[in-house]
């Protein structure tokens, strides 16, 4: 083949490609075994989970039956034929939604601050001390594993009914969830800027502030806003502490089979989610900026 | 014949390249010189179409390069290999795969996505690596290499593209004298033997004079010099590097001016050859 | 029988009642008994949300379901074609439980009317004994809770409602109550969360009818008959399975029809009328 | 000794510097905006606390009660051996269902993530539509997904798998796309410059960078689905969530804490495995890389 | 007196630096030369303690640098500024903030984290930038700069540290002749005027000879040459760059060997000064 590269002596080439192949073989074998493990685990899980594809295929038509009912008013007419009737509770729901967003806001802020403060100590590239790192990791796991309901109950006993215990429970769970997600972002950063900051004698917090945060801030923002969204939708705890919220109204409508209410509330929530997503997108693209070009 | 007609590029308010007019013969060895920030990298990136000109037109033999799209654009890029100033390797992939990136356009997509490279491609890639003493690093991750090693991988990637044009953005910045010679010589050889056009951003005027058949001097985005290596007079260099205005830096007195002036050199041993 | 070809497997679904634990262990022998009696496979499904069971019955994938009274009524109003055929009974043959209103022992209130302007704890909007029955009962008394009380709070759970009274967040709270031996308050007392003697009952609702077992109306008549036959006789034919479920605290399952649930269905319809009143 | 001429020059030329660089010495506009935003957020926070009838005295008085409930949960105990066995079994089932649901969601969301990312999508319209679709999927409550799938496959673990899958696709699509957008552009340019197609740019320029992040997210959701297994309980597949809520409902606190401990151990194991997998993908942390 | 005693560093099986023994006088200007991959960067990084030696000891005036921890370590790092081969800037921050990071050790943490820099610090940073013609880029994001511009920002960052030792890893690799002179002259000036020790990895032997008082040659991790600029004979250079074995590269014949040999130069105008 015509090539502008000078050909290599055959034995040298054989030696080099042999060395490369043997180094790669180990890696490839690892990948293969990993893939095989996933497939086997998936098959086993499918068996435990009673996956039944025939049933799935024969009844897939029923997938739309619930949607069909969601699009139907009590009167039997389609929802869009009578928007006023469909969104009869718009004012109530909007207020509830705002209310819920306020609760989610406080819970998310407090939790995100907690997760932010802890995530660096849980990252292997910034916290070489095994003990501290693992202690923080286990603590974060504790925060997100103990059900919000249990925290809420403890706080209800301590502080009484009302939004406060719910917000606290949300905040603890949020700290545990975000702390973990944040720390994984931190473990994936480019270490060059970190070296830059460290080499001039910057302290640990300064290194974080100048070299790490600018790299991770956009991902942090995306996780935080997703969590905010989850907390807005989350109904269970707030209902549990007597603070209601749009989530509880939605669950109530689902359970009582007020189909048109379900679809109306759902649309409100989806609208909110979209707005949050659009805001996140703008925010993140600002933070990411033009990106390196040179 | 590669023709640039009134090519400009702005970044926001800043004009990085402005109204560049050039015609380049096939098989030329072009040195692009100029101060840091003059727009050399931007010019090369526009030829490879990594960034689009804000205005103007780039054409090769009547093909309007600046209007190419899709497959044609990819083929154009495959035809003009780029060696980046900052290497632009994929740090998490091994060295050989990084070099094999240069052959993407020649391999069916489904094969490349599965990383099923043919033996021939691997042989070509290893040959390129070995040419720059990097054969034994083939299985190492690219982000574990020293600066000069990364640069050599980047050069190998460009060569395995078997391009018609090579756009080399300071290909020897991080290289020691021996590797500098290796690299410049192989660029020179493929230019001479295979008629491949080479664009090379260089900071060393001596190297530029030694290797390039034609020099293009840029300043603040404009071409301010265009001529043979021996047209680059003192005055031109003065203007190019903005040294005419009172030079604010004082020179360490104890050093012989002539020595200070020489910026770099291959070890004298070579000069004796 | 030809239904065996059409129904090679039946699904029996239950919702864990709010006052019992170990549902899986307790119901497994019963389901095995059913399977043996019917001669086909019967599988047990426990769903944590009755909406899931109603949807399942609607789609025909759940053949027999053990409901709570209100959730059964909900299934009927949601238009699912189900028929109740058996009802749980108390050890004394009673067929229901109650919603009661607790206040602190040393409070002055003697009846609901005394609570004007005070704070009331309900449980959650879905609770039969903690919301629907109380609202229905107060409606009969001519009380509009949202106007009559200072504040009406959904405490979130039966326990929270009791804790709310104890802490003074509310002056009175509705709760479920079976009889003198079993109620949520007594249970919290046993778990040392509160002291039962600190509370006093000032209202007890009419009996809320017990939980029914219902099957799909569309099942073949002879299959239905076999099911009924098996269920009504479980306490004699497989005493172990029967005792496992009720731990000797309840009487046998006896026949019932939809007539017995008319009051609950009325109740549910009443609750539905509240829906749009609370809005806009 | 360590006074370079730099400082002397700088101080001597202070006025010159100020006139040449007014902007650098002034408080930057962005800082003012940032402070305003932070102030607004604090204001909203304060308003929220006021609305929630937050009172310090209530908190301080309550702190004493904080521990009063906790002793009820100690020592953790399943109650009986068969029950412990039952819990373990339910946990294993939960892990299996969560695993399959998460895996399916990840597989389906993977291409969507690339379509929804600005730097890898086909065009702006596709990107916009993909994101809005993901928003909608996320907006639909998990309970609704559960009910929808019950209509198709009936009660049982399969419905749980499908419900987990549907509700996680939305989150995955969003998270994947945002990790992709945050990837460094230099390696992508390297691939582009040699004529790599869109697919190849993604495969070689983007994927190696984002794979560790994506793997982390998938494993996190696996963990999350395992520990908050409410959907699995709702669709009648049992699972550990059913037992946990039952124990909470019947106030059997030692069993509650026992189950929590079981889940904690599971989560820690998943975390350890996840760490190993991510390290296998990332390679040894290149702390000393150049 | 900076002393390195038997300093080694391995990466996995690979030995990057091996048994380095050096004593460096305060105020020296040391040039470190050697082939790509010889271990030059690794050596400098160990002195700054960015990576720890696998074995051996680094000491300054009896202080065991390799044993420092916490605040003392940070102070040590502040005293020996590092200029990185790949700049190691924070791409998403503006140029001025990147330079001000050089002052982190001198500003209370709470102030620096709020970015409340004193006017004096800003003035110092701007002066350093202006010194390298980068004053007008102060507000731009670092990842939007050209290669040479980034390098100059990195140098400015090191200078504002007001260090006692400067560890410069190929500080002029991406610079044009004028900026090369600017940078080398200012290193030379602060070395001469303030007695600051400078370590400089260089690929250009001419520059090394011109500026450095002492040269250290490395090969495969070992110090193979240590002497004054004029001790670097042809033989030594040969050995250092591994050119003794039959040089495989053919030289483009049409070029005058002497020209080929010179690797780079400041424009001749300067020589005439
Ligand atoms: N993405 C960008 N955004 C804004 N400005 C940019 C961007 N890329 C380049 N520039 C500016 O355009 C000008 C030309 O840059 P270019 O990289 O072409 O210079 P260069 O001649 O290659 O310099 P060097 O020799 O330092 O590499 C510079 O002033 C640079 O700051
Ligand atoms: N993190 C790492 N992991 C593995 N090997 C490494 C690592 N860092 C450096 N090396 C290897 O150590 C050797 C010395 O690297 P070093 O960066 O010190 O070289 P250098 O002399 O600075 O070269 P250059 O002139 O090319 O910058 C090289 O072979 C390099 O591949
Ligand atoms: Mg450039
Ligand atoms: Mg180096
Ligand atoms: O912790 P989460 O399961 O809510 O992510």
TrEMBL record, chain A:
GO terms for molecular function: ABC-type phosphonate transporter activity. It comes from the Bacteria. This is Phosphate-import permease protein PhnE. PANTHER family: ABC TRANSPORT SYSTEM PERMEASE PROTEIN P69 (PTHR30043:SF1), PHOSPHONATES TRANSPORT SYSTEM PERMEASE PROTEIN (PTHR30043). Keywords: Cell membrane, Membrane, Transmembrane, Transmembrane helix, Transport. It is a multi-pass membrane protein. Its main location: membrane. Gene3D superfamilies: MetI-like (1.10.3720.10). The chain crosses the membrane at residues 29-49, 102-128, 149-172, 207-226, 233-251, 257-279. It is found in: Cell membrane. It comes from Variibacter gotjawalensis. Residues 97-280 form the ABC transmembrane type-1 domain. It holds the Pfam family BPD_transp_1. The keyword Metal-binding does not apply. GO terms for cellular component: plasma membrane.
From TrEMBL, chains B, E:
Keywords: ATP-binding, Cell membrane, Hydrolase, Membrane, Nucleotide-binding, Translocase, Transport. The gene is phnC. It is an enzyme of class 3 (hydrolase). It comes from the Bacteria. Belongs to the ABC transporter superfamily. Pfam families: ABC_tran. Involved in beta-(1-->2)glucan export. Transmembrane domains (TMD) form a pore in the inner membrane and the ATP-binding domain (NBD) is responsible for energy generation. PROSITE patterns: ABC_TRANSPORTER_1, ABC_TRANSPORTER_2. It comes from Variibacter gotjawalensis. This is Phosphate-import ATP-binding protein PhnC.
From TrEMBL, chain D:
Pfam families: BPD_transp_1. Its main location: membrane. CDD domains: TM_PBP2. Residues 91-274 form the ABC transmembrane type-1 domain. Keywords: Membrane, Transmembrane, Transmembrane helix, Transport. It is found in: Cell membrane. The chain crosses the membrane at residues 32-52, 95-121, 142-165, 254-273. SUPFAM superfamilies: MetI-like (SSF161098). InterPro entries: MetI-like (IPR000515), MetI-like_sf (IPR035906), PhnE/PtxC (IPR005769). One of its GO terms (molecular function) is ABC-type phosphonate transporter activity. The keyword Transmembrane applies. One of its GO terms (cellular component) is plasma membrane. It is a multi-pass membrane protein. Belongs to the binding-protein-dependent transport system permease family. NCBIfam families: PhnE. This is Phosphate-import permease protein PhnE. The gene is phnE_2.
């Amino acid at each position: 083949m015509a090539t502008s590269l000078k050909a290599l002596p055959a034995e040298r080439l054989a030696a080099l490609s042999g060395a490369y192949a043997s180094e790669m073989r180990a890696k490839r074998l690892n990948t293969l075994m990993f893939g095989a493990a996933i497939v086997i685990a998936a098959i086993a899980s499918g068996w435990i989970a009673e996956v039944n594809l025939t049933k799935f295929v024969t009844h897939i038509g029923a997938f739309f039956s619930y949607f069909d009912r969601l699009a139907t008013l009590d009167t039997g007419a389609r929802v869009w034929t009578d928007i006023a009737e469909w969104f009869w509770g718009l004012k109530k729901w909007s207020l509830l939604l705002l209310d819920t967003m306020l609760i989610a806001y406080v819970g998310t802020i407090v939790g995100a601050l907690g997760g932010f403060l802890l995530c660096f100590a849980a990252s292997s590239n910034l916290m070489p001390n095994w003990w501290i790192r693992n202690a923080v990791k286990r603590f974060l796991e504790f925060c997100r594993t103990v059900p919000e309901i249990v925290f809420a109950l403890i706080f209800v006993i301590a502080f009484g009914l009302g939004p406060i215990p719910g917000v606290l429970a949300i905040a603890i769970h949020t700290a545990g969830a975000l702390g973990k997600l944040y720390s994984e972002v931190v473990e994936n950063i480019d270490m060059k800027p970190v070296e830059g900051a460290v080499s001039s004698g910057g302290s640990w917090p300064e290194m974080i502030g100048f070299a790490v945060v600018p790299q991770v801030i956009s991902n942090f923002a995306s996780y935080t806003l997703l969590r905010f969204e989850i907390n807005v939708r989350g109904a269970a705890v707030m209902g549990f502490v007597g603070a209601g919220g749009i989530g509880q109204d939605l669950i109530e409508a689902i359970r009582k089979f007020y189909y048109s209410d379900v679809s109306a509330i759902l649309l409100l929530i989806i609208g909110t989610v979209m707005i949050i997503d659009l805001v996140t997108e703008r925010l993140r693209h600002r933070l990411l900026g033009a990106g390196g070009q040179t | 014949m590669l023709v640039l007609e009134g090519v400009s590029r702005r970044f926001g308010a800043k004009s990085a390249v402005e109204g560049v007019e050039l015609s380049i013969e096939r098989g030329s060895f072009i040195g692009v010189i100029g101060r840091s920030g003059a727009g050399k990298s931007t010019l090369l990136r526009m030829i490879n179409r990594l960034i689009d000109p804000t205005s103007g037109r780039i054409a090769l033999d009547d093909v309007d390069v600046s209007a190419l799209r899709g497959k044609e654009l990819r083929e154009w890029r495959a035809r003009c290999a780029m060696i980046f100033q900052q290497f632009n390797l994929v740090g998490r992939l091994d060295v050989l795969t990084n070099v094999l990136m240069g052959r993407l356009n020649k391999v069916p997509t489904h094969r490349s996505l599965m990383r099923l490279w043919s033996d021939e491609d691997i042989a070509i890639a290893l040959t390129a690596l070995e040419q720059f003493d990097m054969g034994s690093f083939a299985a190492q991750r690219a982000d574990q290499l020293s600066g000069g090693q990364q640069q050599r991988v980047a050069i190998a990637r460009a060569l395995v593209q078997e391009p018609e044009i090579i756009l080399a953005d300071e290909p020897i910045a991080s290289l020691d004298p021996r590797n500098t010679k290796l690299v410049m010589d192989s660029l020179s050889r493929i230019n001479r033997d295979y008629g491949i056009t080479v664009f090379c951003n260089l900071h060393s005027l001596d190297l530029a004079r030694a290797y390039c058949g034609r020099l293009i001097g840029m300043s603040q985005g404009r071409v301010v010099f265009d001529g043979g290596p021996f047209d680059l007079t003192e005055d031109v260099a003065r203007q190019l590097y903005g040294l005419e205005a009172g030079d604010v830096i004082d020179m360490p007195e104890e050093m012989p001016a002539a020595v200070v002036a020489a910026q770099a050199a291959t070890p004298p041993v070579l000069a004796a050859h | 029988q030809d239904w065996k070809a059409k129904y090679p497997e039946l699904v029996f679904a239950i919702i864990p009642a709010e006052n019992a634990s170990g549902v899986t262990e307790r119901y497994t022998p019963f389901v095995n008994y059913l399977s043996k009696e019917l001669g086909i496979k019967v599988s047990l499904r426990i769903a944590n949300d009755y909406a899931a069971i109603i949807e399942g019955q609607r789609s025909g994938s759940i053949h027999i379901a053990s409901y709570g009274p209100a959730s059964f009524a909900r299934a009927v109003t949601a238009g699912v074609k189900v028929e109740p055929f058996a009802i749980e009974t108390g050890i004394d043959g009673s067929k229901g439980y109650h919603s009661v209103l607790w206040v602190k022992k040393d409070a002055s209130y003697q009846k609901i009317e005394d609570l004007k302007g005070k704070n009331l704890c309900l449980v959650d909007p879905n609770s039969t004994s903690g919301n629907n029955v109380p609202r229905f009962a107060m409606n009969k008394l001519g009380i509009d809770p949202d106007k009559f009380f200072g504040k009406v709070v959904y405490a979130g759970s039966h326990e929270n409602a009791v804790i709310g009274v104890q802490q003074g967040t509310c002056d009175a709270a509705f709760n479920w109550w079976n009889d003198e031996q079993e109620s949520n308050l007594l249970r919290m007392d046993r778990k040392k969360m509160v002291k039962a003697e600190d509370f006093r009952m000032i209202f007890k609702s009419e009996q809320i009818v017990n939980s029914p077992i219902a099957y799909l109306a569309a099942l073949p008549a002879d299959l239905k008959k076999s099911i009924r036959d098996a269920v009504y006789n479980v306490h004699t034919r497989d005493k172990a399975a029967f005792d496992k479920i009720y731990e000797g605290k309840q009487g046998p399952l006896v026949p019932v029809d939809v007539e017995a649930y008319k009051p609950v269905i009325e109740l549910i319809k009443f609750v539905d009328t509240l829906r749009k009143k609370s809005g806009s | 000794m360590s006074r370079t001429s730099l400082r002397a020059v700088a101080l001597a030329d202070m006025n010159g510097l100020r006139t040449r660089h007014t902007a650098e010495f002034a408080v930057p506009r962005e800082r003012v905006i940032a402070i305003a935003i932070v102030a607004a957020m604090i204001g909203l926070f304060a308003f929220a606390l006021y609305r929630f009838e937050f009172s310090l005295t209530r908190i301080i008085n309550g702190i004493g009660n904080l521990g009063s409930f906790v002793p009820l949960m100690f020592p953790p105990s399943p109650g009986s051996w068969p029950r412990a066995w039952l819990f373990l079994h339910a946990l294993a089932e939960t892990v299996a269902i969560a695993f399959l649901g998460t895996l399916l969601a990840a597989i389906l969301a993977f291409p969507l993530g690339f379509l929804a990312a600005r730097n890898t999508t086909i065009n702006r319209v596709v990107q916009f539509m993909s994101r809005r679709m993901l928003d909608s999927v996320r907006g639909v409550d998990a309970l609704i997904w559960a009910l929808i799938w019950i209509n198709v496959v009936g009660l049982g673990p399969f419905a749980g798998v499908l419900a987990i899958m549907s509700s996680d696709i939305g989150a995955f699509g969003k998270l994947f796309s945002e990790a992709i957008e945050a990837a460094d552009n230099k390696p992508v340019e390297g691939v582009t410059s040699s004529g790599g197609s869109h697919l190849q740019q993604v495969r070689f320029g983007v994927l190696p960078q984002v794979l560790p992040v994506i793997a982390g997210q998938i494993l996190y959701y696996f963990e999350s689905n395992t520990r908050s297994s409410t959907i699995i309980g709702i669709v009648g597949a049992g699972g550990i969530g059913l037992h946990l809520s039952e124990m909470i409902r019947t106030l059997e606190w030692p069993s509650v804490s026992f189950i929590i401990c079981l889940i904690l151990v599971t989560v820690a194991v998943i975390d350890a495995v996840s760490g190993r997998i991510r390290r296998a993908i990332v390679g040894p942390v290149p702390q000393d890389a150049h």
